[in-house]
Specification:
The complex is a heterodimer of chains A (253) and B (263).
Chain A (H helix, E strand, L loop, with lengths): L1 H27 L10 H14 L3 H31 L1 H13 L9 H8 L4 H24 L3 H9 L4 H39 L3 H11 L3 H33 L3
Helix pairs in contact in A: 2-10, 3-4, 3-6, 3-8, 3-9, 5-6, 6-8, 8-9, 8-10, 9-10
Chain B lengths: L4 E12 L5 E12 L3 E5 L6 H9 L6 E6 L2 E2 L8 E4 L11 H7 L8 H14 L15 H13 L5 E5 L7 H18 L2 E5 L3 H7 L2 E5 L6 E6 L14 H21 L5
Parallel strand pairs in B: 3-8, 3-9, 6-7, 7-8
Antiparallel strand pairs in B: 1-2, 1-4, 4-5, 9-10
Helix pairs in contact in B: 2-3, 2-4, 3-4, 6-7
Classes of the chains: A mainly alpha (253), B alpha/beta (263).
Bound molecules: adenosine-5'-triphosphate (ATP) and magnesium ion.
Magnesium ion binds next to helix 1 of chain B.
């Protein structure tokens, strides 16, 4: 516990030092303001953009897309993982595919998705799912592998129905692994959706950043980037803390 | 109460299909009387846990039959059977109290009754100070006691225990043995205890079955003749030494076989 806190302090200190260096570098002119603006300006820009409400539509559109993609990826991933786990033959086929999945840049299919689904939310959701689902499948598999056979015997001795066995034994036993998958899935969904907006979209935060970039509007671009970064870090931090609370009971110390 | 047949096995055999195919058990013929304290000793890997799986109904015998309370088991665990497994089967995500209460989740009993039984079982197993702890914070022996308590709350008529004291030191084993005897007397349940400790079998049981090396079958049955209100102090009875010696002489050859030596 104390070590964790110490690590946290060191991490925060390093980050603060880097930000301070950047600030000083920009203010003294050592860094070209056309490349990077001072962090304090980024914050001011972010606060300004959010305060003015100009980003509201983009925020709603992007995060609702990410959320939909994440939730669907979790459902789809768990279902797929459970199916693959159930059938050993299927697993022989799927394992190498899953292992090499992330060497494929899914983004290259985005134009195809747009051609198939149009320019709305749908292709972005699909891209988010494509990015996130394998992480959930993999963690579901390792989670199900980790359920001790003797716990399945306990379920049978207590004569639990299949649904109760799943809900009371399999899910809680597999939860630590599932959590890892959820965290990754959230990050991947976020990357997938925002990257999609970057490439070929007329709305959303990714589009706003890319639009600002193309109009040489550094201030707006960095403000929006900072916002995306903060939200990603906070969302992951929440999952991380939740996971830590669950894990602490289950481990010694 | 005793006398009536509670569990019976007829020519029960269990094979694992493998590969490699393993003939793990039998043929076993056995009758356990209602209310009897029956122990099984046998060399390592002879099929004791397999016997427990078969008697509990968790697995069907490959051939032969198992009856519990005059009904044949067909791969389902019947109501009234409680099992404590050899491996730790406590649930790491539940507190000790919730682990013990797990047994009653589907019972439909009123909350008060559930709480009463859970408290009683926790106290009975000496876990009162640890009710709010999680299994990771307990020793192996304490976790095994959690599993025993989880079985007790169900008030099973047949209790199957697979080396429940394996993780305990000798003193604690003796004391837990006394607790087990007390439990057996209080509940009137039939107990089947699997153990590798001959003295434990000799001290606790009405009858001890000695199993051969794999595929395990019974090569000796020893009636101890202890009174029902016995406790661990029987180990100072001269008869105790004779019983343990008898078990060892039956088991010695079989144990040598599993160690890969000729008898
Ligand atoms: N699922 C299984 N598949 C194949 N073989 C098995 C399986 N389970 C047990 N066996 C084999 O069956 C034999 C009996 O196993 P079992 O666990 O019943 O022995 P045991 O008497 O309980 O051993 P121990 O004293 O070590 O607990 C062993 O040789 C074991 O290798
Ligand atoms: Mg065993």
């Amino acid at each position: 516990m104390r070590r964790r806190r110490a690590a946290f302090v060191v991490r925060a200190a390093i980050l603060a030092a880097l930000i301070a260096m950047l600030e000083v570098g920009c203010r003294t002119g050592a860094i070209d303001p056309l490349t990077v603006i001072p962090p304090s300006d980024m914050v001011a820009s972010m606060v300004g953009q959010i305060g003015s409400g100009e980003l509201d539509a983009s925020i709603v559109s992007t995060f609702s897309t990410i959320l939909i993609a994440f939730v669907l990826a979790v459902i789809l991933g768990i279902a797929t993982g459970a199916t693959i786990h159930r059938f050993a033959r299927l697993r022989d086929v799927a394992d190498p595919l899953l292992a090499s999945y992330y060497s494929v840049p899914t983004f290259i299919f985005y134009p195809l998705l747009v051609a198939l689904l149009g320019l709305g939310k749908a292709p972005l959701v699909v891209l988010g799912i494509l990015s996130a689902v394998p992480a959930v499948v993999i963690s579901t598999l390792s989670g199900l592998d980790s359920v001790a056979p003797v716990l399945m015997k306990v379920a049978r001795v207590h004569r639990l129905t299949a649904a109760r066995t799943l809900w009371w034994i399999v899910l809680p036993a597999a939860l630590p692994h599932l959590f890892t998958g959820f965290k990754l899935a959230l990050s991947y969904a976020l990357i997938g959706v925002i990257a999609g907006e970057f490439i070929l979209s007329g709305s959303g935060l990714g589009y706003a950043i890319s639009f600002a970039y193309q109009s040489f509007d550094n201030r707006t671009m960095y403000g929006a980037m900072l916002f995306v970064l903060l939200v990603a870090v906070i969302a992951n931090g929440i999952l991380y803390m939740w996971e830590g609370r669950l894990a602490r009971r289950r481990s010694r110390g | 109460m005793t006398g009536q047949c509670h569990v019976s096995l007829r020519e029960a055999v269990r094979r694992y299909d493998g590969p490699p195919a393993v003939h793990a058990l039998g043929p076993v013929n056995l009758e356990i009387r209602r209310g009897e304290f029956f122990s099984v000793v046998g060399p390592s890997g002879c099929g004791k846990s397999t016997l427990l799986d078969v008697i509990s109904g968790l697995v069907r015998p490959s051939s032969g039959s198992v009856h519990f309370e005059d009904k044949e088991l067909r791969g389902e665990v019947p109501d009234g059977v409680g099992v404590v497994f050899q491996e730790d089967s406590s649930m790491p995500w539940l507190s000790v109290r919730d682990n013990v209460a797990f047994g009653l989740r589907t019972s439909g009993l009123p909350k008060k009754e559930v709480a009463g039984r859970v408290d009683h079982a926790i106290r009975f197993m000496g876990l009162a100070q640890f009710a709010g702890h999680y299994p990771a914070q307990l020793s192996g022996g304490m976790r095994q006691r959690v599993c025993i308590a989880r079985t007790l709350v169900l008030r099973p008529r047949l209790i199957l225990l697979d080396e429940p004291f394996g993780a305990l030191d000798q003193q604690t084993r003796l004391l837990m043995g006394d607790e087990l005897l007390r439990l057996w007397r209080e509940t009137g349940a039939t107990v089947l205890l699997i153990t590798h400790a001959l003295d434990e079998a000799a001290m606790l049981s009405d009858r001890v079955g000695v199993m051969s090396a794999r595929p395990g079958h019974f090569i000796d049955m020893v009636e101890t003749g202890w009174p029902r209100d016995r406790d661990s102090r029987v180990i100072s009875d001269p008869k105790f030494g004779a019983l343990t010696a008898r078990l060892w002489s039956s088991l010695r050859e079989e144990s040598l076989k599993t160690m890969g030596h000729a008898a």
